[in-house]
């Protein structure tokens, strides 16, 4: 064989080897692409999962926050309803108070004349009653008259003082009392013990216990008692002063007036 033919064979073999090698490179490229794509896909999947987890956590946080806000809203609503009830009740009270205030002037117009009438009636009663504690009782009436004309005392306080005076006068009818004083008889003054049985009767006895009198409300005078009553009136005076034991005693009393 000639040298040309050998060279030709060698060249052909090199071309074939190169072709085979080139063929292997061509086959390997698609596999690498697939592997790359798979890696990219896994990375994208992992990133997507992270986003999903993140959004899920955010959704859970928002759901919890919503629940808290909803509970707070219900609590606030209940409190607001409670406060609204209180406000409504207070408004009702204010309305009632305003109604009372609006009626004060009318009440005042009726009460003021009534108080003056009550004091006048009390004064007349004291003057017509048995003459015991006369000075104290008359001074009480005078003070009431002065108070009625005083602007410094409230209307309610004036009315209370009048009621107190009436209460004191009422109590006078339920007690037995003794006090020492002077009795004017025929232009002379005698030192005596005044003894009153409520408003039933009023007696006087000299301090030497030798003379006794009974007051006549109709005649406005003192009538001498029979000596037979001296012992009983002395006993009554001692009992009133708590100087003797409770016991019965007999004394004359004024006749009851006949109803007209």
> Rg from C-alpha positions?
60 Å
Q: What is the H-and-E element order?
A: HHHHEEEEEH
- Number of DSSP helical runs: 5
* Global geometry: rod-shaped
Q: Please state roughly what percent of the residues sit in beta strands, choosing from under 5%, 5-15%, 15-25%, 25-35%, 35-45% or over 45%.
A: 5-15%
Total DSSP E strands? 5
The level of helicity is 55-70%
Spatial sequence of strands, sheet with the most strands: 1-2-3-4-5
Helix/sheet category: alpha+beta
Q: Flag low-confidence runs.
A: 20-28
Main β-sheet, in a few words? 5 strands, antiparallel
Distance between the termini: 187 Å
**How much is the average pLDDT?**
82
Can you tag this structure with a few keywords?
alpha+beta; five-stranded antiparallel β-sheet; 260 residues
Summarize it.
With 260 residues, this protein is α+β, with helices and mostly antiparallel strands. It has helices at 3-102, 104-128, 134-148, 155-172, 230-240; strands at residues 176-185, 188-197, 201-206, 212-216, 221-224. The chain is rod-shaped and about 160 Å long.
What report would you give on this structure?
The protein has 260 residues and is of the alpha+beta class. The chain is built from 5 helices and 5 strands, in the order H-H-H-H-E-E-E-E-E-H. It has helices at residues 3-102, 104-128, 134-148, 155-172, 230-240; strands at residues 176-185, 188-197, 201-206, 212-216, 221-224. A 5-stranded antiparallel sheet has the order 1-2-3-4-5, with helices on one face. A hairpin with a 5-residue loop joins strand 3 (201-206) and strand 4 (212-216). The protein starts with a helix and ends in a 20-residue tail after the last helix. The model is unreliable at 20-28 (pLDDT under 50).
């Amino acid at each position: 064989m000639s040298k040309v033919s050998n060279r030709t064979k060698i060249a052909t073999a090199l071309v074939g080897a190169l072709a085979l090698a080139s063929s292997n490179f061509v086959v390997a490229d698609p596999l690498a692409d697939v592997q790359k794509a798979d890696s990219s896909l896994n990375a994208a999947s992992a990133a997507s999962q992270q986003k999903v987890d993140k959004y899920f956590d955010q959704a859970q946080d928002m759901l919890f926050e919503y629940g808290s806000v909803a509970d707070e809203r219900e609590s606030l609503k209940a409190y607001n309803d409670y406060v609204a009830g209180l406000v409504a009740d207070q408004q009702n009270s204010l309305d009632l108070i305003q109604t009372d205030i609006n009626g004060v002037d009318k009440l005042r117009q009726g009460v003021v004349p009534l108080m003056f009438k009550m004091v006048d009636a009390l004064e007349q009663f004291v003057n017509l009653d048995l003459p015991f504690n006369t000075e104290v009782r008359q001074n009480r009436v005078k003070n009431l008259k002065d108070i009625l004309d005083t602007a410094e005392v409230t209307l309610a306080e004036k009315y209370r003082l009048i009621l107190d005076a009436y209460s004191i006068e009422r109590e006078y009818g339920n007690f037995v009392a003794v006090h020492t004083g002077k009795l004017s008889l025929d232009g002379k003054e005698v030192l005596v013990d005044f003894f009153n049985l409520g408003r039933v009767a009023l007696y006087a006895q000299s301090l030497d216990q030798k003379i006794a009198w009974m007051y006549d409300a109709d005649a406005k005078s003192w009538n001498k008692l029979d000596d037979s009553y001296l012992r009983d009136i002395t006993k009554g005076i001692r009992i009133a002063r708590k100087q003797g034991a409770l016991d019965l005693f007999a004394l004359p009393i004024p006749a009851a007036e006949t109803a007209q």
